[in-house]
Structure formats: C-alpha cells, structure tokens
From TrEMBL, chain A:
<dbReference type="InterPro" id="IPR052703">
    <property type="entry name" value="Aromatic_CoA_ox/epox"/>
</dbReference>
<dbReference type="InterPro" id="IPR007814">
    <property type="entry name" value="PaaA_PaaC"/>
</dbReference>
<keyword id="KW-0560">Oxidoreductase</keyword>
<dbReference type="InterPro" id="IPR009078">
    <property type="entry name" value="Ferritin-like_SF"/>
</dbReference>
<dbReference type="InterPro" id="IPR012347">
    <property type="entry name" value="Ferritin-like"/>
</dbReference>
<protein>
    <submittedName>
        <fullName>Phenylacetate-CoA oxygenase subunit PaaC</fullName>
        <ecNumber>1.14.13.149</ecNumber>
    </submittedName>
</protein>
<dbReference type="GO" id="GO:0097266">
    <property type="term" value="F:phenylacetyl-CoA 1,2-epoxidase activity"/>
</dbReference>
<dbReference type="GO" id="GO:0010124">
    <property type="term" value="P:phenylacetate catabolic process"/>
</dbReference>
<dbReference type="Pfam" id="PF05138">
    <property type="entry name" value="PaaA_PaaC"/>
</dbReference>
<dbReference type="GO" id="GO:0005829">
    <property type="term" value="C:cytosol"/>
</dbReference>
<dbReference type="InterPro" id="IPR011882">
    <property type="entry name" value="PaaC"/>
</dbReference>
Length: 280, 165
C-alpha cells in the first residue's frame, strides 16, 4: 500500500470547499467536505453495484434469479438514494440524489473498483456480490452504532436487506463452487480475477480519519478480520481456494476508475441527460 | 375546521390498503408511525419505508394524502422517517390472520439470531393453504421485496411468505 498515494488523493478539488450543510454548527466547517466524500463512497458503491445487478433483469439464468437480482438491485439503489440524498444535503449546494447519480462524470464517482466491473457470467456476479455483501453487512453493523444519527438510521434499515443479500450470494458461491467441475472451475476463475479488487474494500485514508470527528469511526482492521472469517468459511464450504493477497487494484475512492465506468454511466445516465428535468 | 385527532387519522388510514398486499392496511403494516394536526389545519402524517427501494412507498404516500383529503383534511403533509427501522414484528396478529387467509404466510419473529447466517437454518414455513409444514423455500426473493416464494410438498401449491425483517 503506497502511503503517499493515500495521502495525496483524498478530497477532490471540487468537493474540498463544500459547505457544511443542513446541520451547520454541530459539524465544524472543515468537516463538511470529508463527510460528503464519505457519504458519496457509501452511496456510490451501492448505486453502481445496484446498476450492475439491474443488468440481469430479463436475463437471469432462471426466473427466481431474475427476480432475486432485480430485488437486490432495487434494495441497493434505494440505499444509494438515501445515502446520496444525505451527501447532497450535507454538501449544501442544492444537489439532490438524482443530480448526484445522473449528472456526475466518472472521475467524480467514489465507488470502489470491484462494483463497476462488468457483470460477467452469473458466477462472476455472485462471487462479486458475495465479496461485497460480506464487507457491507459488517460496515453497516458498525455504522448502526455510529454517532451520526441519520447515517445510523440508514444503516439500520440497509443491514436488514444486506443480510438477505449475503445469505443469497454465499449460498450461490457454495452451490457453484461445490457443484460440477465446470461450475467449480469457472467460479474459482471468477474469484482469482476479482480478488485483486478486494483490498480497496478495507483501505482507509484521511477521509476516514476526518469523519471520526462526526462520530463515524469505523474499525476497518477489525472488519477485515471478520470478513476473512466469513470468506474463509464460505470458500471452504464451496471447496474453493482462497487466492493469495497480491498487489491490490484501487483508485475508485479518489475518482480513478477502470475503463468500464464510462460505459456504465453512459447507459445509466443517458435518459436523464437527454431529458434534463423530465418527470413522468 | 375539521379536526383530526391522532386516533381519527389512524382510523382513516386503517382503510387504506397496501398497494402490493391489498388485504392489509398501511396502518396494520406499521408503515404509519405518527399523525398530528398543525394549527393551520394541515394534517401531518409520519410514515416509514418498508424496504429502502420499495417502489410502493410513492403510491402509499399518494393514497395517504387522498384518503385524508377525502375525509376533509384541508391539506396533508407526509414525512418519512427511517428510525426506528421498520420491522414485520409491528404487524398485529389480526393482520397476520388476514395474510394467511389471502394465501401469504405471515412473517415469523424478525430476530434472525445473528449478523451473518451463512446457511439457511430456519424451520419450514407453514403453508397458508393446507397448514402443512412439509414445505420448501424456492427463492428468498419474490414478486416484491417483502416476499419470498415457497412450495408446499403436500398440497403442491406455491405460496408467498411475508419475509421477517
């Protein structure tokens, strides 16, 4: 982990001067920008992953999974909507959740790289979902106890949904891993390919340190240890081999994305950008 | 000015069906959390979403407004609260019975016993049609976010379960 890389990035220039937002006074003037940044990271993870899940709608391998992926997408996009709304209110520049979702460019998104990768086959999708879900329930569990009341309320609602997601994705990882030779080999390949994107799920930087002042102090090292336990357990049941920790890909938290984000946003934002302000 | 006590508002909204489960009202579902009338006559209703992305919430909001306006409220304001998070434990026994009669297995206790449950270890859900427990979960995600799909191995009927959350 290159220390200088962590330090140099952080708050994007545009966001750095962000106002304090709705609860000015209770949060110091310097706190606004990191808080906005933090909410964007949480919201963008769920928005982008929700979009990827929604790509399965009408294409699921079986009817039940078509419905399941659509339901999971709906949950994630709903969570994103609440988190981006909070980001917009905290920023205080009049951007609501729709403006943040549909009128930002790729470099302004703060999601981790894992969630923006193409959906691949159903195995790729379920392995990715599992790796993310396991992190998400643990982060949300911590956030339900955080000192930021609105964030804690969003987390308390979201974790109920994410527990279902995790159970669903972990069962598929077991079913596919401990399935046929073909499914085992393909899911092992998915895991090997996606592993290098998991480091970013636990990285911390000055934004995380700054939001601690607002009562949002998350023990990422502790979460990583618990995530390891869940992942090892499920991979063991799935007869899959946990990949070695090599160099990890990251950059999404600072707006440095893979080439896939542009295509994703082109699809996701096309209607809103073609018809700005349209309602129906 | 028509006055609306909290009880009166709950009574009116007790006739507003949930758009996706029309056999029970938005009050029975626990969606309506509070109600009060302001001095200018505006009736303020506080609701809580069932699921973060539940598309029915917009419709519920509209239905709440039109039901109260039809009852004579000069204006209605709907506020959404997230805390405390909605739980199916708020659904009363009378409403659970209505669900059962409608063919939806009512939710069990919301406490699922832990943060991470890797393997499904819940007992089979009772079939709302024939009462058998010889049932199997088909999918934890059903036609709406709040429902799961089961199949009864005795009467061979598929049925929805209102998920405990």
């Amino acid at each position: 982990m290159a220390k200088h890389e962590e330090e140099e990035g952080g708050i994007a220039a545009g966001e750095a001067k962000a106002g304090v937002g709705a609860v000015a006074g209770t949060r110091g003037p310097q706190l606004g920008a990191p808080l906005v940044e933090y909410f964007l990271r949480l919201g963008d993870d769920r928005l982008i992953l929700g979009h990827r899940m929604s790509e399965w709608t009408g294409h699921g391998p079986i009817l039940e999974e078509d419905i399941a992926t659509a339901n999971i997408a709906l949950d994630l996009i709903g969570q994103a909507s609440q988190l981006l709304k909070l980001a917009g209110e905290t920023e205080g520049k009049g951007r609501d959740e729709n403006a943040l979702a549909y009128f930002r460019d790729g470099t302004q998104f703060r999601n981790c790289l894992l969630v923006e990768l193409p959906k691949g086959d159903f195995g790729d999708t379920m392995v990715r979902q599992f790796l993310f879900d396991a992190q998400s329930v643990l982060v949300l569990d911590e956030l339900t106890k955080c000192g930021h009341a609105e964030l804690a309320a969003i987390a308390a609602k979201a974790i109920k949904e994410d527990k279902y997601h995790l159970r669903h994705s972990s069962e598929w990882v077991v079913r596919l891993g401990d399935g046929t030779d073909e499914s085992h080999a393909r899911v092992q390949a998915s895991l090997d390919r996606l592993w290098r994107y998991t480091g970013e799920l636990f990285a911390t930087d000055e934004v995380d340190r700054a939001v601690a002042a607002a009562g949002i102090s998350i023990d990422m090292a502790g979460i990583k240890a618990r995530w390891d336990t869940i992942v090892n357990d499920v991979l063991g049941r799935a007869t899959l081999t946990r990949p070695a920790d090599g160099p990890m890909q990251r950059g999404g938290r600072r707006g440095r994305h893979t080439e896939h984000i542009g295509h994703l946003l082109a699809t996701m934002q096309s209607v809103a950008r073609a018809h700005p302000g349209a309602t129906w | 000015m028509v006055t609306f006590s909290r009880d009166r508002v709950f009574e009116i909204l007790g006739t507003v069906p949930d758009p996706e489960v029309p056999v029970i009202s938005v009050v029975e579902l626990g969606i309506v959390r509070d109600a009060a009338q302001r001095s200018d006559g505006t009736v303020e209703v506080t609701i809580t979403p069932t699921y973060s992305g539940c598309p029915a919430m917009f419709e519920i909001e509209r239905d709440v407004v039109s039901a109260l306006e039809a009852a004579g409220a000069p204006s209605v304001e709907v506020k959404t609260v997230l805390s405390p998070a909605w739980t199916t434990d708020w659904i009363p026994e009378t409403a659970r019975e209505k669900l059962r009669k409608y063919g939806i297995a009512p939710p069990g206790p919301a406490n699922d016993g832990g943060l991470v449950t890797l393997v499904r270890a819940k007992p089979p859900v009772q079939c709302p049609w024939c009462g058998s427990r010889n049932t199997t979960l088909k999918s934890e995600f059903g036609s709406t976010a709040c429902k799961a799909i089961h199949v009864c191995k005795d009467c061979r009927q598929p049925f929805d379960e209102f998920k405990a959350i």
